[in-house]
Structures are given as C-alpha cells and as structure tokens.
Amino acid sequence: MASMLHYFNFGSKASTTKGAEVKPTPVRALPASWYTAQEMYELERRAIFSRRWLFITHSSRLKEAGDWLRYEVAGFDFVINRDRQGNINAFHNVCRHRAYPVIEEEGCGNKKIIACRYHGWSYGLNGKLAKAPGYQELDGFDKEKNGLFRIHVKVDVNGFIWVNMDAKEVPEVPWEEHFEDVDKQARYKENGINFEEYEFDHTYQMEGDYNWKILADNFNECYHCPTTHADIPAFLNLDSFDSDVKDGHIQHHCKSTPEQIQKGLNTASTYYFPNSSMTVTKHWMMVQKFLPKGPNRSTMAYEIWRHKDAKEEDFKLINDMYARVMGEDKVLCNNAQKNLNRGVFVNGELHPKYEKAPLFFQSTCREVVTEHFDREKKEGREIWPARQQLPNDAKVSAKDEEICSGLACGAQKEVLAW
C-alpha cells in the first residue's frame, strides 16, 4: 500500500519555488469524437497510416527465400517477404491487373513465386511481373511498369522491419525524423540484450470493440496499473516508473529491484508511433501492434520470441503475466469505448506527470492529423499518400479520377466544412 500511495504522490510534499507552492495543471485529452467518428478514422488512414513509418516485426521471421508474412493495418493489406538475394521487400497485396489479392492465405508461409489466382498474373519474389497471359501480344504493354505496388522498407540495426506506404519514390517523411537511434538504446547493451539470440515462438491476437487510440492511451501509462493489474509489480517497479518522450517514440523505464533482475523480469519497452511497441527481457520478447479495423474496432496482435537459452519456467513466467495484463487491458478498453459511444462524455483531464506518455501520443496524433487536414482543405481534395501513381500516358484514367474525386470531394466538403 505504501508503494501505491507513493506512486500516486499522496502524502508527499509539493515542490516549491521561493517558498511558494507550484502545482502542475491537468491537460485536456482528445475529444470523444476522435475515437468514434468514421470520418476521423478515414482521415487517420490518410494522414497517419499511409504516410508514417510503421514498426512491424523482426526479420528473423523471414529466414529463407520465399518466406512471407501478411498483415492488415488500418485497411491496408500488405505482404513482407524475403527474395532470392536475401532482401526484405514489402508489397501491397494487390494484383496490378484487376486488384485481386496475390496472397489469399492468412499469416505466414513460403512461395517461390507470387501468383494471382484470378487471371494467372504472376510475380517474382522481388515484385516484378513474371507472366501476364496474352499480354505479350499487345503493343505498348511494359512488364517493367506492372510489378506489384512496392512499399518502402527499412531494417534497423537490431533486425526489426519497418514499412512506409507513401507511394512516392522517396517517402515524404524520413525514418530518421522520428526514430533516429531508437534502435541504439544504451539500455540494450547495459542489459546484455542481443536480438539475434531470440527465436520466434508464437503469435496470438484479441479482437476488441474499441478505437485503436484507446489501446495506445492505455498502454502508454501506468496510472491505472496499481488498481487493475495484479501482475505488474512483479516486473515493473512502480515507484520508479517513468517515460521519456522523443520525436515519434516513447521509452518506458523503471529501476528494477534486485529480485526482478535476478529473475530476468526487468523490461525495456518502447512504443513506436503510431501503433506498435516492443518489450524485451532477458528471457522473452514481444512485438505488439494495435491494428485499426474501423473507428470502434481493433485487433491487438502479439508476436512472441524466447531467448535461445531461456528455461521453460523463466519464459512462461513473464509470458503468462503479460498475457494476463493484455487480457485485462482489453476489458478496460471495451468499457471505455462503450461510454464514448453513448455521446455523453467529451473529454477528461490527464495528469501531466503520470499520463505524460498518452499526452505525448495524443499531441502527436493531433499534430499529424491537423497538418494533413489543413493540406486537404487547401487543395480541396482528399490526399492519399499510398495511392497508386498513374503514369503520364494514363490520360483517360486521370480524367476518370478527376470526375469521381470531384463528386466525392463535394460530399466531403460538407462533412469536414471545407
């Protein structure tokens, strides 16, 4: 109980300056409409998920040529694979012919060639068009211009894979702008973490009726931990829990107790805006992704690794505790979203210290979405960074798009008061 009281700052003296008590002020959170409106969700898809760098998984899941992983993030269906040269690639799961998926299976697998079952178009592991039945007879058809829609990929120094769906040749937002040196954190070396020593173990996921940002808000603070998660004190020393916020990421840390260190429970956890985190301990590693399915629907997806030398009981101890915490978080998020949907609550006031990390997350969301909204308002149209870039000779298609965009933009003007 004393630890909990200390965490909430009960009974402690407030800081003073020249004898006067100085008290921080609470900060208003994002309004409920940002967690419930379909229009806001679509704007986030354009402003955030099709433009910013997304932390996805570790390259150890793609060991051999042809290995692939399929993901869906905010309605974007894409595949990450390893080609015959050992390169990691990412492509939208869309055939260039009639938009049918080129990979229909869920999860992961191995294919030496990527084929569309609809009309038989096939692609190499590098995304280049290999075969288009009948098209070799057409004048002017260029195979080089009909490969899969490529997604930008970065593999950081620790082997983690990032993607950016910006269709431009060079992404408008460079990775270094928000994540420079996030893969070179001193605590990895201090804790003896070598990411090459972790072996993939399993995945699991939970579906929830809540907005993805509720999950992010919940994950990025431990204000609720003493009253909700009985397991937390076993691996987090709440007396010293804090977060460092920088650019596009949040580093959570605390001073572990000798007992936690002895059991290998001391954690290094980082949240990567917008929707992923990675937590690593001596015996165990987790990549967590909050996958938006709509304004009121999300998937909590987990990929779990174990250290190659971890004993079963050591791995199971931390893995089971985290699984229980994640299940408890789902209940919290479901209940919060239900009340947001009722139309009574607008927003609350967040604590500037204990909820510093969710405030940073929300501030980043507000900044990114507002910037994109202003760009769209100025141009009088929706801006989809991930959308296919039509070639200069596609004049008819450009006119088709102009007509439809004009109709859609007119309706959207009413919604967004353009």
From TrEMBL:
UniProt keyword Cell wall biogenesis/degradation, yes or no: no
Rieske domain segment(s): 54-152
Gene Ontology MF terms in the entry: 2 iron, 2 sulfur cluster binding; choline monooxygenase activity; iron ion binding
Cofactor: Fe cation
Reactions it catalyzes: choline + 2 reduced [2Fe-2S]-[ferredoxin] + O2 + 2 H(+) = betaine aldehyde hydrate + 2 oxidized [2Fe-2S]-[ferredoxin] + H2O
UniProt pathway annotation: Amine and polyamine biosynthesis; betaine biosynthesis via choline pathway; betaine aldehyde from choline (monooxygenase route): step 1/1
InterPro entries in UniProt: Rieske_2Fe-2S, Rieske_2Fe-2S_sf, Ring_hydroxy_dOase_asu_C_dom, Rng_hydr_dOase-A
Family matches, as Pfam families: Rieske, Ring_hydroxyl_A
Enzyme nomenclature, EC number: 1.14.15.7
GO biological process: glycine betaine biosynthetic process from choline
Keyword terms, alphabetized: 2Fe-2S, Iron, Iron-sulfur, Metal-binding, Oxidoreductase
Functional summary from the UniProt entry: Catalyzes the first step of the osmoprotectant glycine betaine synthesis.
Family: Belongs to the choline monooxygenase family.
Protein name as it appears in the record: Choline monooxygenase, chloroplastic
